[in-house]
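Notes to self, Alkaline phosphatase D family protein:
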Amino acid sequence: MSSTPELPPVLAGPILRRLEERRLVLWLVASHDLDLHLHLFETDPQGAQPDRQWPLNADNCRRLPVGAAAVLHLIDLPLTSSLPEGREVGYDLIVHGHGAVADWAPHLLHAGQRRPSLVWRPRLTNLLHGSCRKPHQPGPDGLARADQVVADSLGDPETRPNLLLLTGDQIYADDVAMPMLATVHALIERLGLIDETLEGARVGDSQALYQHHDGFHRQRLLPAVESGRALRKRFFGGVRKPIFTTASADRHLVTFAEVIAMYLLAWSPTPWHLAEPRPPLLDATDQEQYQREARALATFREQMPAVARALAHLPTLMIFDDHDVTDDWNLTADWELTAYGQPFSRRIIGNALIAYLLCQGWGNAPDRVAPLIDDAAALLGDGTGALVMASQDALITRLLRFDGWHYQWPGTPKLIVLDTRTRRWRSERRPTRPSGLLDWEALSELQQALLGEEAVVVVSPAPMFGVKLIETVQRLFTLIGKPLMVDAENWMAHPGAARVLLNIFRHSRTPANYVILSGDVHYSFVYRIRIRHCDGGPRIWQITDSGLRNRFPERLLEWFDRLNRWLYAPWSPLNAFTKRRRLAVTPYRPDPHEAGRRLLNRAGIGRVWLDADGAPARIRHLGADGRDAEFEPDD
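result:
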């Protein structure tokens, strides 16, 4: 491994996370403990003299080593006076011995900038949102379009989005390309990312896993016991989903170090220059796949400076979906019993959750997860050697029991981000049936958070109101006991959860305007929803934009779109058999697009402008390829 002095001081970041009137939260990873000062330039964002400055010490910067040459810096700075509202503010991180951001990360700056900038506004007027960013999906990166939005807003702070909302699948821990896994392993070696012991696997520790001749075909490394065979099918067997796609998990990330390396490669161009992957010995078929995936990853890597620049300028909130951990995560009670009942699969899930805590969850709600950060710090120690297995398993147990991943943002309208993965309404009578996305207690808490609000923005990783035909297909597969084959995860799949959710919308004291932002499905659509025979009822908009770098099979989606319009037209009697029969759903049309289409199959990122009442004034899909689409009501 190369020595630390040869490494750049900052490996990833800064990423601007939670931004409040008197609070600034930043995330970065460095190659060693940094002596940092933060400067704010409020009078002139690109001026020479800061208006305020702070040393970043143990009180406002938590340092957690994740390897010999990788240290997380979790910066949570309370401000003694308010940020100026609606004005562009420059910020700089001065690294002792390495200078300002312009010196050690010039890729984070737009032309003419001396430092990154931020804008704080308490009223939500303008949001970016997206999900499902798969590195080896061919084509450009929707998250890079956010960088152009920032560039267009420089000098015009009112046009800059309040927030960038990443609504799930920020990484794909369960579907890793061969050249990406090779790069992950090279980065682990270069940075000396921390090792661990593995229980219940055919390899004893992380180093043995990385060096194993079957390391790129990991289904062969699972234990040969009954539960292991079930896990092989569910985790590593390339579970076939004929209605949608085939999700191959041959190279599922296993260790904590692998997941940390994936986050670094997903958010920063710097690690790509540090890791020279060594391609494994492959047969002709695998070699062809390796080269195909390498070409896709080249595009991903080329756009990484733009992605990092956007993350440095926009307050970014996140929430997990299944691929951040593993496909079909907590889909059914039976799935949970199998997955958490075997040490190896429990560790795989737990490692992804530890990494999520450090890389995503902390920046969303630093105060709530502070005790878990303490536990993680105790586990990591000085970042060298290997994790203590008993302590690692104990932290995983705490994370699996943690019920605080959801959070809110205190603006107007209120923003509520839901955890639809770990607080599920499990079926006790039929454990193979899909669980509700929120259990009764979580739904009750949601209703309490809504009471008295005039308007609200809700982030639900899976759409609350999806495509009826696709939900019907999912229901049919559930009835024959095969929910895993079609990702039968929708709000209407569980009768109890669906009933409570719809009752919340009908409650007289809940908001007049709901904007629901979702992803997950790999296509984009917009619905306007009202309650039938209730003139004073709420107005609801389901706005789904997916994926940032993923797409649905084009021909299949075309047929779903067409059949859905035929079978579930407003006059169709089939509507009487859906759980949403008391709701009138009006689809929006994406313009420009093929006549009649309502589902947009294009990688990119969504943008929503809100009016003074918290209702959408404009809804737009910003195509990763530069082709944009405006969603207009179809009435």
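- The chain has 17 helices and 21 strands.
- The two ends are 63 Å apart (CA to CA).
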